[in-house]
Automatic annotation (TrEMBL), chains A, B:
Gene3D superfamilies hit by this protein: 3.40.50.2300, lambda repressor-like DNA-binding domains
Organism: uncultured Nocardioides sp
Name recorded for this polypeptide: Transcriptional regulator, LacI family
PANTHER family on file: HTH-TYPE TRANSCRIPTIONAL REGULATOR GALS, LACI-RELATED TRANSCRIPTIONAL REPRESSOR
GO MF, one example: DNA-binding transcription factor activity
PROSITE patterns per UniProt: HTH_CROC1, HTH_LACI_1, HTH_LACI_2
Amino acid sequence: MSSEARGAGHVSGVPLPALPPTLADVAERAGVSRQTVSNALNNPDLLRADTLARVRQAIAEMGYSPNRAARNLRTRTSSLIGLRFGPAQEGTANATMDRFVHSLVEASELAGYHVLLFPGDDDDEAVTGYDNLLRSTAVDAFVITDTYLGNPQAAWLTRQRAPFVAFGRPWHDHTARHPWVDVDGAAGTRLATEHLLAQGHTRIAWIGWRKDNPIGEDRRSGWFNAMHDQGLSTTGLASRVEDTINSGAEAAAVLLDESEPTAFVCASDTLAMGVLHTLWIRQLAPGTDIAVVGFDDSQVAQVFPVGLTSVRQPLEDVAVEIVRVLGSLLNHQPVQERGVLLTPTLVVRESSGVADPAERTAT
Amino acid sequence: MSSEARGAGHVSGVPLPALPPTLADVAERAGVSRQTVSNALNNPDLLRADTLARVRQAIAEMGYSPNRAARNLRTRTSSLIGLRFGPAQEGTANATMDRFVHSLVEASELAGYHVLLFPGDDDDEAVTGYDNLLRSTAVDAFVITDTYLGNPQAAWLTRQRAPFVAFGRPWHDHTARHPWVDVDGAAGTRLATEHLLAQGHTRIAWIGWRKDNPIGEDRRSGWFNAMHDQGLSTTGLASRVEDTINSGAEAAAVLLDESEPTAFVCASDTLAMGVLHTLWIRQLAPGTDIAVVGFDDSQVAQVFPVGLTSVRQPLEDVAVEIVRVLGSLLNHQPVQERGVLLTPTLVVRESSGVADPAERTAT
DNA sequence: GGCGACACTTGGAACGATCAACAGGGGGGT
DNA sequence: ACCCCCCTGTTGATCGTTCCAAGTGTCGCC
């Protein structure tokens, strides 16, 4: 084992002693005072180069790492970001949350934060969770993920002056003043539609969610505007249904019978799976006879034998943005933008009719 | 708003003051000393009933909650359980991890713990993560989830005397002495096989993973033994492939051609999806012509038009067991069992040939 | 009435870090 | 030669809780 000084990522080969070393221990070994060691960690610029090196060596030799609790107590921070991890959404093909959490964990780590999960099946439980964590100063900030109509969580957190960033726009609440990060769904469906237009399709159908869902209407507008920009009619080419495979399959059947579209853009991969199902039943080849594009790039889309072309949300970027805004918030720096809107990409696979797309990505 | 005293779940309607109340504030209001308030929280038995009530009322009125950092510092605990949240496994139909994390979060909450996520793409990064969290006393214990052959994480944690519980048996390391909780995969596939046998199938094929995967071999043994218990031959009925849809589809095609099975038991839903694909191509109706059973009860299984019968791991129970063992470990109580093995259930859907199963569950 | 046992309560110290304020040394300007 | 200030590093106090050992009151018993 080398004895050279290493940085924060140091991993000692020896077992942890019963009581880990403290700042004072390191100070004594390095022949300096506690505060100097503290400065070596938090304000290295204040130290002379040789002193800094000496302290760092002592830190490395002893395998010292600052006690979290003590630091938290003194600085009134925790370096923890709270995230409600509600009940698993079984029964849908959507694993967006999973991917997002991964991205958030990584982005947080880079910014020196960790992610703390807490349960909460409904709004009341969620608020109780927020309240407990806030009162006990267990977390520095929150990330909230569902910003559906009238969600009381954002309003409650705002009232408590708790720092938080939302993944998702405050669709119905124009008075909301909290920072948010979201993905431009309309841009995604426009991308999908233009991808199909570029291949000569003119009768491109839409299968989306019910009208009261603002996210669904947003995605729909991308298809709608892309069509009309080309002077193409959308009459009879749109359907609004529940987000289930069966609904998607039925809607596709009806549209095929009544309007003879050559391509489908869907508000979700779940609906797109329904379309694929109908195509199979009718012996129509996805990609060759009829093109299909989904939304979310779910596991099903990736894994299916006929790869499903799908709009992919840049969740990694979303997480990075959220952490960035959170950082500004916590350092009392002004947050320039109220909201950040990111553009998704299109993952092209066989179902949209491009021969051997080899997982191409269009932007 | 009522002014009656409420318990720990109290949610105040008023915004949080700039500085939350402390133990001393509550003590002053209740006309007692700090220690008495502390006892009211941690050792209520020590207080006279009327004093306890008075203190509790003050706590409720002020919306007091003990400062986490101070408590952690003093007691050298954090009430946090560390869980590595590695890279998302895209490209498989498996969302087991997601469901497990949810269960763990809920079970932890009930036991007074929270779950802390940290990244780590490979073993080295994971160990670095463990090391940092341990040295800074940021977590009380760990839960580790992948116990594949030669995983150095368990050995490292053992060497550091860090409390941890593994989800998964230490398959290859018989010297391992750490506690673990796992699901009996063989029992699951036996359940699946016997379910098919009960419906008159005798030529039941197996599609599993490569031989070097002990989990796959375990699951295979359940099918194998169930068949032989009935005096049925398994010759030519087994296939070992990669865990992809395409591999499953190819294996199914070969088996159908060469051995004419009437049912398939698969080591994963991913492979089962492949089987379904081959059936579609060959115009064979799943459930009616050929029965199929998967493993993991993934979203795909639940969501597919032809519901996929699948073995479901009792992840909720796994989480509860893990937290229980963790609790014993942290309270220095002896842990009776080295390992806990839980039995999965079978979720019956259309693909196994039962008419209108209506999501029945067999145990 | 006094004494001891018991039950409950109290003030002081400690956990380990950071904040605030200050001490000594050296260099530059007047 | 003097003053001042910057640079570097030190000391005492503090965050809010729990542990420790001693204090106070009440009660029963002789």
